[in-house]
Amino acid sequence: MQLDDHAEELASALGVDKEEVKRDLENLVQYSVPLDEAKQSIRRKHGGGGGGGGAPSTKDVADITPDDSSVNVTATVLTVGTRTIRYQGDDITIREGELADATGKVSYTSWQDFGFEAGDSVTIGNANIREWDGKPELNLNDSSTVAMASEEIAVDYPVGGDADLLELEPGDRGRNVEVRVLEVEERTIDGRDGQTDILSGVLGDESARLPFTDWNPHAEIEEGASLRIEDVYIREFRGVPSVNLSEFTTVTELASPVDVNDSAPRLGVRDAVDSGGMFDVEVVGSLLAVRDGSGLIERCPECARVIQNGQCRSHGAVEGEDDLRVKGILDDGSDTVTVVLDADLTEAVYGGDVTDAKEAARDAMDKEVVADAIREEIVGREFRVRGSLSVDEYGANLDADTFDESDDDPADRARELLAVVSTQEVEA
C-alpha cells in the first residue's frame, strides 16, 4: 500500500481532509517515524483513539511525554538550526533545535519557518509529539501556531547554541563552535545527487577534538584555520559525536588563533566507557590479555574486514591480504576496554613487519606464534593508550593512535584508585 493509500484510508476513517492527513503522514515518515506509529499519532490528533480526544493539552516541558498526541507549551527558544532534507525527490527545509521553560528542555522540529529565533519566548499551539531516541520531541507543522509569549520565560539553560567540542552530543542542532582545523581532506562520494564533493577531517579546541563533515564545502575550511562555525548539527559516527556543516552553516575566520590542547582528556577506563564514546581520550592500565584474532591476520581486499578461512562476511570467498593487528584487554581497576593496535603499532611491539611475521609462521607452521610473541612482550605491563573510543552493545573498543609503556608511579595511581573506591563506597 502506497503512502497516498494510507492517507486516504485514515482520512476516510477519521472524517477529515485527505490532503491534511497526507501532509502530516509525510512529515512524520520523513523524519523516521515508523508508519504504524505515524498513523496512530494522526489518529490521536483527530480524536480517533489511542490517547483520547484531538484537543491539545497545555503542559510544562517536563510533563510532556511520548504518549501525548499534541500539546500547547510556552517556552524560550534555546537554539535554532536550519538544514534541508530530501523526501520523495523534494528538498524540504526544516528548522530544529531545543526549547526550554523553568521545568526542563525539549527538542523540536519545525516543518515551516515561524520566524522565531534563539532567545525568543514563544507560545506554541497544537505541537504534535513524536518519540525520538526514547524522548518526546515537538513537531510543528501547518496545523501548529506560534506567537510571542506575553512575558519572557526565564530558563537555566544557555541560549544561542555556543558550545565547546567536549559539550557536543549526537542529536544537537543549531550549535556554534570556535575551532581550529587540524586535518582536512576533499573526498568524492556517491551522494543523493550523484557524485558529490565533501570535506572531512578533524576540528580541535581547548576541550577536545572531533571529526567533521562539510556537506557543502566552505572555502574557509583549510588546515590550520581558526574559525567560528555557526549552525552545525551533530551526528554519531563510529560511536563518537561528529560535527556536520550544511548549506546553511556560516563559517567566519577568527582574528586570533584558537588554542588546541595537544594532550587528550585523561580518564579512568570506567569514566571513559560511561561517556558512551570519545574521539580522543587517554587511559592508563595493565594489559591483561591478547585476544584471539591478534597477530598475523588476513583482510578482505574489498572491505578490509578480517576474514576467516578465506571467507569474508560481505564478499564471500576472497584472496586475503596479510596484515598485523593486536586486540588487547586493558584494565585499570575500574573497568576494562579492548585496545586495538593497527599494523604500525603492532610492528613496534612485535619487533618486525608482515614479512617477518609470515616467515615466523612458516617456520613454525603455525600463525599463532606471532600472537604468542606479542603476548610475551606486552601482557602484564602497564601502558598509556590514546585514541578513539567507541562503545556499543558488544563492548568498548579503543582504536589506539599511541601505545606507550606507562611511566606513572604505581603508588600514586594506587592512591588515586583507593580514593575513588572510598568515594564510591561513601556514596553507596
Automatic annotation (TrEMBL):
Chain residue ranges for the region called Disordered: 39-66
Presence of keyword DNA-binding: yes
CDD domains: SoSSB_OBF
Signal peptide: none
Name this polypeptide is given: Replication factor A1
Keywords: DNA-binding
Gene Ontology MF term list: DNA binding
GO BP term, pick one: response to ionizing radiation
Organism: Halogranum rubrum
Record flagged with keyword Nucleotide-binding: no
Domain of life: Archaea
